[in-house]
Give the backbone structure.
Amino acid sequence: MLELRDVFKYYSGIPAVNSVSFSARPGEVTGYLGPNGSGKTTTMKMITGLIEMSSGEVRFEGKPIQDDLISYKRRMGYVPEEPYLYHHLSGLEYLTMVAQLRNLPEREASERIDGLLRLLMLYEDRHASISGYSKGMRQKILIAAAIMHNPELVLLDEPFSGLDVASALVLRSLIRELAARGKVVLFSSHELDTVERVCSHVVILHRGKVVADDSIEHLRSLMAAPTLEDIFSQLAVEQDIGAISRQIADLIHA
Amino acid sequence: MPKLREFLPLQFRILYQQFLSGVIDLEALSVHADVPRFLGQFASILVLISLSRALGLLFAADNLAPNAYLSFAWRGQQDLISGTMLLVGLVTIASWDSTFPDMRDVRVLSPLPIAPRMILAAKIAASASILGLAVVTLNFATGIAWPIFIGSHHESSLGFLRALGAYWLTILAASLFLYCSVLAIQGLTSLLLPRGLFLVSSAFFQVAAFFLFLAVYFLQPTITSVEMASTTSSWLNWSPALWFFALFNQLNGSLPSELYWMAQRAWFGVGISIGGAIAALALCYVRTMRKMLEQPDLVSGGHSFDWTPRLGSPLQSAVVLFSFRSILRSRQHRLAVAAYAALVFLIVLPWLHIELSSPTPLPLTPDFLTSTFLIVSLTVLGLRGIFSLPISLTANWVLRTTQLRPTEKYVAATRLTLLLLGVAPAWLIAAMLSTRLRPWHEVAKHLLVLALVGWLLAEVALINFYKVPFTCSYLPGKVHIQVMFWCAMVLLAAFAITSAEVELPALHSNVRSSLVIVTLAACGLALAALNHHRAKSAQLYFEEFPPEVITSLGIGPLPQHTRSATFLR
């Protein structure tokens, strides 16, 4: 289980993440939602160990991750928000490098990379430079790199970005499959419809604070809201959406 | 009075500024980088070269024998013209492809109401500005001193003015010729080849052009008389620097009638290259921009070629191959390597000439030993310098999330990279240059010493280097490159000369040479152990300075209700 306990992150004294606590259990997909700037990506980066917390604790399987960060990283797979890759490498070279950095046995790594490239429809372009890949192809490379070592914890920050419909459906099903196989999956997205279909449990963040942490079913009945979008609007959207859209249209019309 | 820039269209001014800054790859720089200062440092190196050449010229002219004027003047003119042409060539290579539309231009600018000719004009203006700045700084002192010297030997009282005009016109024509020739060739290949193939061949042409310019600069003979010109007619036919030397003399009124055809060739060359460049660029901006949208940049790395050799542990393989591919495929890194390779090439060239021309075996000399030490030290320290140029800072997250081993393992991987990509090639070059040297046992001992020196230098280069090559941010402008460059040159030369002086007598004695070898091996082991030990308590780092994740607006303390307006990145 992944647990966050009273996690804070300050930037120049301003809390970007404010006393965040929640748990993500094996066998279920936890959705991590929030508007832009609410602190989702900062939390994800703290969970991966990319940035340090100002205070609080992240625990995995009951142990603080900082106690043995290397062993924790071995068990974790991460898809970042932006598809930042080494563009001068080919897709195959990038995945091979990640496998080597993860110390996967050569034969096993080769079989998995080959299989992932075929299943993700990248095999034909495996020797092409990543600089020429489309956003969706880069996203697939990130997904392959994140899961090739069979991690126990899968962190997905906007994984559907740039994917075509077929690939998005495959990924949606894959996320469920990974959870069904006992993995802890933490999944951040703005696509509420997808989150509603994939996640059993959601954590909603607003201005750095957790404003909801429950099952979607329970939140629906609690807030008398038929959809996750309605729940989200009540908890994390402060603006009058209709008024803003009218103002924008008026502005460009003037 | 309105400024000149106000007459230029707004679109042009904005695009020009964008393209001018595009000469520097901002992705590779740290947020703390001081780009104008960095460019200023390079300009100051050129100014220093110009000043030293001008002073050297004035000093030599002062001691000139009356009958040596012509030979001295011709030699000097060729030197100044070919030096400028080499600089133009190097700047053109450094800004390779920057005049042509790239994918970013097509994606960002195509949807906007901007005419392709506006983009073209702004790109040409940006690269011409950089080129002009380089040419003027290199010639700013010689461009006055040389016309004064030539003008003083003129019969007319306006000799200085004529020589001044001839000098700068020739420099302008030679620069235009080279710049436009490269543009025309690039434009033609871009038009004729499919997009993917063009991208591959362009990288190849870039490196080939670099070595071509260097080879021509160093190999072309210097003409000091009309008689000599008749014996080197093949060079006169094909060497543009010699055509422009003739052009200078034609404009100055000092060209012998036998060499008029060379000046004609210079005029034709300038005309053809400008015409070719205009045609190629115009066609490119009409056709290539469409072609780029229709043909993706997918460049195959060889469909059936999957080259991933095992080089030590998986981590070592990953780091060595990542470094090798970065050098091979990144324009910036390739150029940096080529610059060091050029210095090595300079050292190797005379020895190669001696090797090939000598009918009998040669003895080991202090000069040869010095040269080989220079080759190894330049390669190792050059490579270590290039390791500091990052390839993509934003992609480094993958190395941080997969950092499953302690820092000393990464140091070991970097050591292997330095040994395989730096010491081994330099040692091989030295070994090949030694094939005609005798006695064999002394040559073998020297090669062993050289390998140990290479290893020792690699260990020195690894002190406090706790990063993966090409992944840490670089701070141009923060380091005094103009000082560092000359200091490094002096130190390397002193090191190589001293090493050769110590080694040569030792090679004649088995006891002394064994002592040298054992001492070097012991020093190497001690340094390796020290690096290993220190790395155990060190952390791998990816930024020279920790990145700021908050951007301050710099407007003082904010009232409580406006604090949320501060941008979090």
Q: What stands out?
A: The mean pLDDT of chain A is 90. Chain A has ten helices and ten strands. The longest helix of chain A spans residues 165-180. The CA atoms of residues 39 and 145 of chain A lie 25 Å apart.
